């Protein structure tokens, strides 16, 4: 505080008055706004809580009506006095009729007689699956023969998760001759309650007096679930906490923040209904109750800041612009000049900044040009390493054919060589379609086949989609040449070279495989190393592989290029991976 006073005293009178007026006014209105907010919060909480209670009263009335409907169904069924085995088909037909008419409320109807016979509206399923809960439900109904009885939630093989309602049937001698049991459809009950109590920020849970969940909104993500069991369920500790809450408004910590839980009084069945809200959604309308105070505060703050802006703009605005530009330099963004023209010290600083930016832009452009030139020169150097070697081998083949006076084959070889040279020295584009590269490989293979005869066979399996993809010129041919001279021919027996290409995702994959001599692991590891030594020795096996690999990496980046897999006596596979749509 002392430092603040010293700082203010160093200013002029105008700034002192501005600071005092601004701070006092803003503090006053902030205090008023805060008090208004707290009063509004309490008022809104009361209004929403009352609205929630009213809605829950209506929901409980709906549940009571739902139970009364079930009670009426069971009462009508219990009016039937005879449940003998001789009338089995008639009893099953009656149960099916009642079940079809009330399928939205009751899932399965049973009649359990005093002699242990069981009739149901789903007799076939009962005969197959059974229901081990019926004896317990029957005994519970006998404990209270004068009114409707209901169970806690349980799992039924015929009805799923359900609750049973039991109604005893007495004969003329006031003896219980049977018990009518109805298992309700809890899933349908949840669907009917959801439009009243469920939403993106709101959900509900119905819990019995014993703390068991009757039904809930299965789509809600507000409640904590135990995912270690199947199906997942609300954590028992959280259910216990809800059961222990007081009636009315409560605040509870949920999995994603604080929850507002409104607990209703128990209904006819003794069930408690819980309406649960996301706290942020619960209070989202509070702002409408203090809009006037906020607008007044904003008006005063705007007026004060307008005065501040008029006074300080002339001094602070150029400095802010300079800071923004300097931040762009720090983050390596393209710097821009400041166009303000001033004749004071700030203007001198801006002029120095603009001169510095001109120099930085010049250096960046010069660096980019050098990188492009280096890339172009390196690519040309790599291509020149491949070209002379290929030409030497081809001319040696023609020389050998001429000595043997195989004129027709010399003519074919020269024609193929002419096509290859035309393809190799075409300057239109550095990249070609895979289809064109494969055609050049066909001419190359034709030349080598004439010289070496049927010592190797080239097989191609290329997808139509891959044929349209672009690839670097003269990138596959050196690999095929490598497979012939260093893979197949040293075996001194016929071999096969397979070329496959396919598109997977955003990449083109080309595989060149041979069943030649293969290579050891040590030799494989040396293929990517010792580039300079290999160049001096003139061994194409390394030159072709390393050069093609480096060409791909220069064009497409480090993740792309060649991958080699080989085994001595088995053969070699080289995989080419390049992007279909490379970055410009």
Automatic annotation (TrEMBL):
It is found in: Cell membrane. One of its GO terms (molecular function) is kinase activity. Residues 313-365 form the HAMP domain. The keyword Aminoacyl-tRNA synthetase does not apply. Its main location: membrane. The chain crosses the membrane at residues 297-316. InterPro entries: Bact_2-comp_sensor_kinase (IPR050640), HAMP_dom (IPR003660), HATPase_C_sf (IPR036890), HATPase_dom (IPR003594), Sig_transdc_His_kin_internal (IPR010559). It comes from the Bacteria. Keywords: Cell membrane, Kinase, Membrane, Phosphoprotein, Transferase, Transmembrane, Transmembrane helix. The keyword Transmembrane helix applies. It is a multi-pass membrane protein. This is Histidine kinase. Pfam families: HAMP (PF00672), HATPase_c (PF02518), His_kinase (PF06580).
């Amino acid at each position: 505080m002392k430092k603040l006073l010293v700082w203010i005293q160093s200013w002029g009178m105008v700034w002192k008055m501005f600071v005092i007026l601004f701070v006092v006014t803003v503090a006053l209105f902030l205090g008023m706004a805060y008090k208004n907010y707290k009063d509004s919060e309490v008022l809104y909480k009361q209004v929403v809580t009352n609205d929630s209670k009213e809605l829950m009263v209506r929901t409980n009335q709906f549940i009571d009506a739902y139970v009364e409907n079930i009670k009426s169904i069971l009462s009508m069924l219990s009016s039937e006095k005879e449940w003998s085995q001789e009338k089995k088909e008639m009893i099953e037909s009656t149960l099916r009729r009642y079940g079809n008419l009330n399928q939205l409320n009751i899932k399965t109807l049973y009649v359990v007689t005093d002699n242990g016979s069981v009739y149901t509206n789903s007799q076939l399923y009962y005969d197959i699956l059974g229901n081990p809960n019926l004896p317990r439900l029957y005994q519970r109904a006998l404990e209270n023969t004068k009114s409707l009885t209901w169970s806690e939630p349980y799992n039924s093989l015929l009805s799923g998760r359900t609750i049973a309602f039991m109604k005893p049937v007495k004969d003329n001698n006031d003896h219980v001759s049977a018990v009518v049991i109805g298992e309700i459809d809890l899933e349908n009950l949840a669907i009917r309650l959801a439009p009243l109590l469920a939403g993106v920020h709101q959900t509900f849970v119905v819990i019995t007096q014993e703390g068991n969940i009757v039904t809930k909104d299965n789509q809600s993500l507000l409640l904590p679930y135990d995912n270690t069991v199947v199906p997942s369920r609300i954590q028992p500790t959280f259910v216990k906490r809800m059961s222990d809450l007081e009636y009315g408004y409560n605040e509870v910590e949920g999995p994603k923040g604080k929850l507002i839980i409104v607990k209703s009084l128990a209904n006819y069945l003794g069930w408690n209904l819980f309406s649960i809200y996301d706290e942020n959604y619960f209070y989202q309308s509070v702002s409408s109750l203090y809009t006037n105070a906020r607008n007044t505060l904003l008006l005063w703050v705007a007026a004060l800041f307008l005065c501040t802006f008029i006074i300080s703009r002339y001094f602070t605005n150029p400095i802010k612009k300079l800071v923004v530009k300097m931040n762009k330099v720090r983050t390596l963004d393209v710097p821009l000049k400041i166009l303000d023209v001033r004749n004071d010290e700030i203007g001198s600083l801006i002029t120095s900044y603009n001169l510095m930016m001109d120099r930085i832009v010049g250096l960046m452009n010069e660096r980019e040009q050098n990188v492009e030139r280096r890339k172009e020169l390196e690519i040309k150097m790599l291509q020149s390493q491949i070209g002379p070697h290929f030409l030497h081998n081809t001319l040696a083949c023609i020389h050998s054919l001429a000595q043997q006076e195989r004129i027709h084959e010399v003519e074919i070889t020269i024609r193929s060589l002419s096509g290859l040279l035309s393809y190799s020295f075409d300057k239109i584009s550095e990249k070609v379609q895979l289809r064109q590269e494969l055609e050049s490989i066909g001419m190359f293979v034709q030349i080598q086949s004439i010289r070496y005869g049927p010592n190797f066979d080239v097989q191609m399996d290329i997808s139509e989609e891959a044929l349209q993809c672009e690839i670097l010129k003269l990138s596959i041919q050196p690999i095929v040449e490598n497979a012939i001279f260093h893979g197949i021919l040293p075996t001194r027996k016929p071999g096969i070279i397979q070329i496959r290409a396919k598109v997977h995702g955003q990449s083109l994959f080309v595989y060149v495989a041979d069943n030649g001599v293969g290579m050891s692991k040590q030799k494989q590891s040396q293929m990517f190393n010792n580039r300079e030594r290999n160049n001096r020795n003139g061994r194409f096996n390394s030159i072709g592989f390393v050069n093609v690999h480096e060409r791909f990496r220069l064009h497409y980046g480090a993740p792309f290029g060649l991958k080699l897999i080989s085994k001595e006596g088995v053969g070699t596979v080289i995989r080419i991976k390049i992007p279909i749509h490379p970055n410009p």
